[in-house]
Design a protein that fits this description.
14 strands; single chain; four-stranded antiparallel β-sheet; about 260 residues
């Protein structure tokens, strides 16, 4: 197909109404049309593979970059699902323990999280998503071989207590805690394009939040939603479309003639 494009869509606030979490009907329709027109369509999310796959199936897609760039799925096959660097996580947890900052870790690609005490719950009130909490009073990250994500109940003004944060990917969506995860969506996209033997200049990304800045690369086309929460995202974008709920995804694709 001549002029085939490779689309990578953020989920929350891009394909969905951020207030309700419901997929915008016109966005769903647009993704279907893009595939019918021969384009490659994928999600690009910070969500864990197990969680992002729910939306993947709901949208009728089979490709995604997930786990903030640490995971890749092509044609429904998990190509990669990379845990965090153990040494970096252990250094961070050591600082948390020294400063009485609560934390949780995930050992696998599920909604299970592990904690050794109630500190995280007392300080943050718990995660803002479905979670299976497992208490292990003998939990020692030095004995855990794989950690996919961690959650640290540190307030923004106290982040200086954890200098190891500068060495590991982290995002904050709520004031109560940080999510420790991969922050390399761009690298996940580039790796996917290599696997597909496709030219990165044909990549098109859609995003709306600060964590999408990393995938707005000058080597490809970047589209910011009108509801983008970070002005830097709009400044870095090649094109700013309407809000997600006002058919922003569809309008952008129509503007460029992709549908």
């Amino acid at each position: 197909m001549k002029n085939k494009k490779y689309f990578f869509f953020d989920i929350d606030g891009t394909l969905t109404d951020k207030q309700t979490g419901i997929i915008v009907p016109s966005a769903r329709e647009t993704l279907t049309k893009l595939q019918e027109n021969g384009h490659f369509v994928a999600l690009c999310s910070g969500r864990a593979q197990y969680k992002a796959r729910i939306i993947l199936k709901e949208l009728g897609l089979s490709n995604m970059v997930c786990c903030g760039g640490g995971g890749i799925v092509i044609d429904d096959v998990i190509i990669k699902n990379e845990p965090l660097d153990n040494n970096k996580v252990r250094a961070l947890i050591k600082e948390c323990e020294a400063n009485d900052i609560g934390y949780l870790i995930t050992k696998d690609d599920t909604e299970k999280v592990y904690r050794k005490d109630d500190l995280f719950m007392e300080q943050s009130g718990g995660r803002y998503e479905p979670t299976q909490y497992i208490v292990d009073k003998e939990l020692d990250v030095n004995n855990v071989n794989t950690i996919y994500k961690a959650y640290v109940s540190v307030k923004p003004e106290d982040e200086h207590l954890l200098p190891s944060l500068q060495n590991i990917g982290h995002l904050r969506f709520v004031p109560q805690y940080l999510i420790i995860q991969h922050d390399k969506k761009d690298k996940g996209i580039i790796e996917t394009m290599k696997l597909l033997n496709a030219d990165i200049k044909d990549v098109v990304v859609f995003g709306d939040d600060t964590n999408d800045l990393i995938m707005f690369d000058e080597r490809w086309t970047s589209i910011a939603m009108g509801n983008a929460t970070d002005n830097k995202l709009k400044e870095k974008a090649n094109y700013v479309t309407d809000t997600s709920v006002n058919d922003g995804v569809m309008k952008a694709c129509q503007h460029f003639g992709w549908i």
